[in-house]
Structure formats: structure tokens, C-alpha cells
Amino acid sequence: MPGPAGYPLVGALPTILREGVFEYVERCWRDYGDFFQIPTAGRSRIIFTAHPDAIERILHTRVDNYYKGKGYDPLRPLLGNGLITSTGDFWVRQRKLTQPAFHMDNLRRMVPVMARCVEDMLGEWEARRRRGAVLDLHAESMHLAQRIVGFTLFGMDLSDREAASSRAVTESLEIAGQRMNRGALTLPLSVPTPANLRFRRALRTLDEIVYDIIGHARKAGPEAQPTLLRLLMEARDDGPGDGMSDQQLRDEIVTHYVAGHETTALILTWTFWFLGQHPDVYAKVREEIAGLGLTGAPAIEDLDRLTYTRMVFDEVMRLRPPVWAQTRTTREDDVLMARRIPADSFVMFSAYFCHHHPAFWDEPSEFRPERFTPERVRARHRYAHIPFSAGPRVHRQALRALRAEHRAGADPDAIPNRRAAGAGRGDPADRDGAPRSPDIRALARPRPLIARAGAPAGRTGNRWFATAPCAATHRTRLRLSGASRARGTLV
């Protein structure tokens, strides 16, 4: 099997630690193509693929043969036995218990909450605009996602716990990523290394917050508002038996929190980034939203009418999928791409490189939402675009809720408009393989305001413009500022 050479005993680990896991895999993909083996420590093997045919076999055709094995162990202290990490009969049970929480009626109740959070954010932006404040758009996206998750998951404002919970999740994900990269050379969590101590502190913080919220929800009783937590607490099997324990609730809540918070914030930030790069696309998004003619909060059916906006989000998630790679372990021998895969192999497949595959995408590095017209989607390999994975493990209704959250944030005044200026590519992952956001700073300056879509007469919003980027750091930086209409230039 093709692949790079490694070092005795430690395989490719020194090279990965030096280059970063994303850069290493990217180089190997360009050198060896869709299928190669990464040398590892000991007798284990990592087999990489980015071809939709192989991914379809892993996620659909022979899904029972590819399970989430030891490769997910570094995530289990954080996510527990939630839907992302659980397997087998327990996963089937949890999936069955969580499914009703994402019924369409419940999603309908969530959308106005999401819209209200966006309105609150825009009000805060307007107040800060008057002060000439600089906005960190990823921090703003994280704050918005945190509020949405707080209200939809728990029915409460998490602002007083936002800093602690966000820091705990970010730190634990970062360290879990480092542990995944080091594989067999990772020391057990019981060993008091600085990283392990930070990881354990972050988990304690998160557990204290989540268990406190679960305790308050149990005391509130069944008459409390129907939040996702309440719906999960009331979920029951068809047969005899209790619902979820506090531990199971904790695992599912943290799993949904990470998916709804980190993932949404990343996608919104990258959407800001690409719309700032492409003012023509931004103008079409504004026009489509204005065409809805809304006079109040949108319903989920209104969001479904945002067909071009959906195409924009799909293209953003093609170029910057929230999870750039996943792993599975084989139960028994199999054949992928005409190559024998032994049992107990560690298989890595990448949405990012699949989404950039030149055999399935013309000029794959270019931002073109029109790739996602219904006709083009039907003509394309169904596994060529898998931003949220695919196959039976995908929670369709939860995915719909996440997409609704993204589009509920598509307020035209919340999108920075940027004139053409050069910028770095903005890698989707850092050295440890953790998702990376573009580092965007927005500076609002006074200018004639424009009417917001669907706003009553006389109500106005703010518009965001960009100047040139600062390319002094590895993470691409954009400085966004208000446009001076009097001079007709960017300032």
C-alpha cells in the first residue's frame, strides 16, 4: 500500500508533531492520492482515504464493519457515552430516546428563540457601533451560539456561565485533539502532567455547570417550558424501563452543546469570512432575505425558502467542514478501493479532502454557491459532500435543527460586506487537527444606515465593510471597517 516512510518504533509521529496533523495529511494526499497508509507506533496501522466511493462503503454499505473504536477514547472523558461516541445497542437506544426531541413541532418552537437571539446581538452591535468598538466576529459568533444553545437546550440565559463553559469546552477539545494525535504514546489521564491537569479541571468545570442545570430542571417539574433538556428528561423506551439517568443526560447535553455551540460558531465565522470575500454573493443573500417580506420572527418554513442562502452555507461547509476528518476501526477484513483492509485497522477519512477532490469539484478551492443547485446536487456523488458525516448515524432531525440555527443567524445586517482584498487561505485546522476559525476583526464607523429586510418604516440597521487584511500572522486576519460614503473610499 502506498504511503510515506516513518521512523522505527514511532512511525510518523515526529513528523506529525513537527508539521501538524492537517499539514501532514494534506502533503501525503497530494503525494499519494486517495488511498495511503500512515506509519504508526508498534504494529497498528492508519489507512487514509478521501474518495467518496470508499467513504460510502465506510458510512453506508458496510457500516456495521466500521465502528468508533479506540480512536474516540480521547473524546470520551468529555462527551461520555453520548450519540457521537457511543456504539452498538446503547447507541440505538439513545438515538431512539433523543429522536422525539427533534420533532418538527419542537423545531418550530426553537426558530423564534434563535431569531430573538440574533435580534439581541444586532442591538448590542448597534450600541457598540456608536462607540466605534472593534468586534471579534468569531467571539461574537461564539456568544450568539452560546445564547441560542442556552435557551433551546436549557431554557435559560447562560451569559453568567459563558466564559467558564466556553473555556472548559475549548480547552478540553484542544487537549483531546492532542491526545488523539499522540495515540499510543499518550500518558493516561491519571498521570498528573500539566495538560492532564488542565483537562481534568476543564471537565470538572463543565460537569459542575451541566449537573447544576440538570438538578434545577428536575426540581422545576413537568410544567416547565419544553426545552431540549426537558424533552430528553421525559423520553422513555417503548418497553418497560426508566428514561435517562443524570449521567446519560449529562453526556447527551454536553454532546449537543459541543455540536450546537462550537460547530455553529465555526460555520458562522467562516460564513462571515467568505461573504466578506465575495460581495456579489453577499448582495444575493441580502436580496433573498429581503424578498421574504418578514414583519416578525421567521418560522422554520420561512428558513426553508432561503434556497440561495442554504447554497451559501453548503458551500461554506464544503470548503471548511466543521469536522475535517473522522476515524473508524474495522471489525473484520474488508476491501476498499480494490485494496484489502485487515481487521482491526484504523481507517481515517476526510470530509475536507473529499470536498476538495478535483474529480468531483471543478476548481475545488473556489467559492461558488451555485454548485448546490438541486440539479447539480442530484448529478454529483452523494458522498462527495459530507460536512456532518452521512449514513445511519446521522441524526436527521438534529441536523435540521443545526441547519435552522445557521440560517436563523443569516440576518443581512449581521454579515460583513468586504471589497476585494487579498487574504491567506485560512487553514481549517490547527497543528493538532482541531477546527480553526478565521481571525476576523470588525470595526464599525458611522455611515448612512440602510433599512433592514422586513423592518417597519424608519427602522434601520448597520452595514459592515472591509479594508485590507493584515497578513503578519499564520492565522489570517481581516480588519473590517465602515465605509466613508462622502469620499467613496474604504477607511
UniProtKB/TrEMBL annotation:
GO function terms (MF aspect): heme binding; iron ion binding; monooxygenase activity; oxidoreductase activity, acting on paired donors, with incorporation or reduction of molecular oxygen
Keyword Cell division: no
Keywords, alphabetical: Heme, Iron, Metal-binding, Monooxygenase, Oxidoreductase
Pfam families: p450
Stretch forming the signal peptide: none
Bias kind Low complexity: ranges: 440-459
Disordered: region residues: 406-462
Domain of life where this protein originates: Bacteria
Annotated family: Belongs to the cytochrome P450 family.
PANTHER family from the UniProt entry: BIFUNCTIONAL ALBAFLAVENONE MONOOXYGENASE_TERPENE SYNTHASE, CYTOCHROME P450 FAMILY 4
The name this protein goes by in its record: Cytochrome P450
